[in-house]
Amino acid sequence: MSNSKQTKALLVHPPVTGLSIPPWAPAQTAMHLAGSGVCFEQYDANLDFFLNHLLTSKRLAELVNVIKKRAKRGTFKKAEPYAASLAADLAANPDKWNRKIDNIGNSFKLLKTEDFFRPESFLAALKNIDDLLDLASCAFYPSRIQRRCFTNPAIKAWPAVNAFVEDREANPFLFLCHDGLATRLESPELDLVMLFISAPDQLMAALTMAHFSKKLRPDLHIALMGDRLTADVEQYGHTLLPETDPKPLRHLMGALRESAAVEDAAVPDYRGLPLKEYLAPALVLPLRIHADPDSDLIPPTLFSHLSKICQQTYNAQGFFCIDSHVKSNFIEKLAHGASGKEPSICMNLPCALEESLDREALAATYRAGVKLVQWSNPAGNLKSLTQILWDVSKAGIWNHVIMPAGAENSSDQELARFMATNPNIVHSLIRRQPSASFFAGPDKLSPASTVYTQVARLPGRPFWHSLDDAVYLLLYLNRYDTKTIVRWRVRDDGLSVYSLGSHISYHFVEPQQLPPGYLDEICRMVEAGGSVDITLVRYNIERAFLIGYALDQGVIVGNSTLKRPRKEYVDAVNQQAGLDLGNYLERGYTSVRPEYRGMGIGAKLLEGLTARVGDLKLFSVISADNVAARKMALRNQTQQVASFYSERLDKEVGVWIPAWMLKD
């Protein structure tokens, strides 16, 4: 296959994947080919597909007519709910959809401006894009096109793939081939087409484009590059290449042209990509710290040098690390090289959550521009892991944890509970169900919540759920602090945003004065806290001296109670600890929803209750292992005066009394 003429290559990044940053694999390949005598063109077909071929006013208007025809044929009678309801809404409200179509250009434009950082404007733009993607999907049903995701439940095996690549009704990538790819294949000098499959959601488009290219230009050499490719895809191309190992690329280029030599360069070449067209207000470049299997990680000194080059050449304001995880020695060196100056770039770090990590080094990476750590594969001692998460959070870095779905051992369950009950430490937590194959759809991600699930639902959802593109989360973290973002919630309308704790009201009443349903909810709140014996919760609350509760958005978010201790309880404490509590009220059943911790709600409730006791005295019982409650007690000038063993709780508990009452 070798020849003396100059080799010309087309490097293609197929749909469907994210629109916020340029692709790494073609730029990395372009870096290797630079100076080798190979002439190449980079083509971001993913960006072209969405911006210039699918989500244009003209194309969407055409697809609306297709949907109407398919509706008349009964296509949507047994369709998935999203498609059936959308087709019905299109028929009932055509003017609404025409307005959305007319506004698509403004939605794209907003994501590239400062309005991106206005949460409600950002949500409106994303919603319009997502709605129109669902609209377009109905024209190709059962295929569904989403941002960063493509599915077709009819494709379950390779024979179905062979039919799909030529299916004009279900394959949305064929018009991209005809309108976008074909003109690039016309050059008679073109020898090689390389299609990069960095994610499973790119597979169907890549195979469609490979099949189209072979039919249009049988003389071309088709190479498919990706790290998860199997022998089944060989029929669509001539060569399969790994993405992270350049050696097979060298062999291919040597076979195509004897004098072609693939270089070991340092900086991915993004010059051939439309950097101003990506849907983000600042340029963030993808980065692999472990460039290939045989190389060591990029030294932090070289990384700093590369950062400066990319900033100067491309005006990059951030880097997004796409490694599965970085090694601990890189973290330590990155922290060591961080200066005290404000970092000029922002970046993320994917890390395995292991107890061997250097906590101080991780926290220090904030000074190097790290705003987000994406944790996975937790393993190790619970105390060590939680301390790592705490130190990183304290430094101002967002902790995003990915837990595997499925069966858990007791250690995993304890860690999951800690993370769910401490959203101010673990800011976002999801469970990942890996796909069994290319045909099982994308990995399933779901927010993980294992606590306070039985209490009233807070309105809406956390704002970070809308930042489903991690690049968007990184950019928001570079603009706002973690505390601000973790408290934002999107209301059920999907468009308006409120901040947790912005409208809290406090109430102190006797049990019989509680509004209907509040007693049940307070009991559920106490039981959800998990630190008390629940058998007597309702009995004690119904007979309480006073109940304090905090409301936000019409939901009880915190509560505390002054209880009248039962006689048998007073006698038991007197017998074990020698302390007579006969004329005391017990302060307890304090429960604050995890999302509202750190706002001082518990302290304000205790302060309000204490101010209303008159001449009575107070005590509280705190188990020895309830570290959070003990810290709160110390902050509120409360002292432990005795301890005893609780048979019902099967552990040591302490009796705490406000210091000022001990002076009387």
UniProtKB/TrEMBL annotation:
One function term, GO molecular function aspect: acyltransferase activity, transferring groups other than amino-acyl groups
N-acetyltransferase domain: residues covered: 509-664
PROSITE patterns the UniProt entry points to: GNAT
Domain of life: Bacteria
TM regions (residue ranges): none
Record-given protein name: N-acetyltransferase domain-containing protein
Lineage: Bacteria, Pseudomonadati, Thermodesulfobacteriota, Desulfobacteria, Desulfobacterales
